[in-house]
Fold each of these.
Amino acid sequence: MTSIWEVIDRTETGTYMEETDFDLKVVAKKCKELVKEYDIRYDPKQIITSDDSLADDVYEAGLRLALESGIYCIDTKRVVKFDEYEIKEGIISSPRRLLIGEDKDSRILYARGVEDERAPIICGGQAGAAIPEEWYLPMAISYMKEPLVDMINNGGLAVVEGRKVRTKTPLEIQATRRELSMLREAARRAGRPGISFIAAESSVSAMGDLAIASDRYMRRTDSHLVALLNELKTDFDRISKVVNFYEYGAHNVTLVDPIIGGYAGGPEGVAVCFVASFLLGRAMYGADFHVCHPIHFRYMSTSAPECMWNLNVVGQAMARNAPCIIMGDVWTSAGAGSEMVFYETAANTITNVVTGSHPLGVSATNGKYPHATGLETRFMAEVAHATVRSRLTRKSANAIVVDLAKRYSDRQGKPDVGKPFPELYDAARVVPKPEWNALYLEMKREISEATGLDL
């Protein structure tokens, strides 16, 4: 596989291009052409498709986009390209199984298949959120106390000891180290010292990542996210993160979040861009696995029907043609403490599990507010395991997901954002308050009856 050093060379020697030309003349133009050529169409009545040829067409179009577009390096204004052999070498060498965590808390993170009958790995936490420092520890414990949660991806810190954290300042170092220290302490208190993290959410630039390359903070069985910037772009900060953990030994994880309504176009073009991003993320970052996070230009949440269609068709496209480990985000518009969050979580989770991904969440309120707890993530895990136990097919899952989406999609513009963590949990004992637990039990019964799943 192409070495990271060759990649860095290409950021200096690739074709020179202005960023706007790459956006419009490469990404936008090629996505539009490929969607038309392969006749890729989004059908809101088929959020989960049973059409294998559609998944294969999305893959082939994505492969062509990866080869023809490459990745744009913002710092040098150069296009980094990979040939077909390099892309396919990345596919062949991509891990199908990874050991994450340590001792009794270790798990095998694996590449899921379509309608896979194996239990998925559950990654819990309010990923992407800025969490107040005084809540961080009990909030993290609330996820780690859940026995069905296998690994953790919690949010970061925007304020440390009353000081606002700014990127590329000493406070970014402190925030990232504080985040990892509290995660480690939470794991010990929850009796799960070896649980694996996707962490360093407080690290926007490479400074935070460099500061936690130590067993004291991030172990080699942990992971960190390296984003592909929208769309199909990177910069030296991202590449520096790759180099750091490439040598240290922790897992590089490509975070891909193309925007529906952005340069890639509608849901069809975004699906093509996703496949290209995963293939290029492996070739450029040496990514061990990927996080699939389609963004709706209006609602942000991955539970929007167009986003779930993307999770579905991209998961199937990769599982059928280039098996790799994918975690599908569960980002809801609604917040913990609301009824709506359960409908969104159920639909989003079923989509991920049936079509080749492990669920990651619940990042309630799209990570905007720290209105999240371990309880709705317990529900996500229960839905995921029930989906597998019930052996849902894509056809039966689609009927369920379409019905669930009807119950919340018209409210995503003005969702119920719920309540903050301390209003839903007894923070000292780290247990749900009675009214939040009662709503969870009520919604669990209601959704079990509506879906036929044994929750």
Amino acid sequence: MAREVAEQLLTMQTAEGHFPFDPQGRHHTNLVDWAAFWRPLGQPGDPCLDLNVTAAMALLLAVKETGETRYLEAALKALDASLKWDRPE
């Protein structure tokens, strides 16, 4: 199962290391639909800190389960790409 999730994440990762927002696919929820009436939660393809870090955590868990170093490389790439964002707190 970990390998399947990691492989799917690798297909979604951009060359820069981001995991872009996909409101019609992976990130589709009722909240996304309702928010679109007033103000969308994001534009398709937008990167954000939460999406990158969540995917990186899943990849790190896959490394623990499978030992695949390419999952580690992808996780580190996502975390490096996330360094450009500042948290408000």
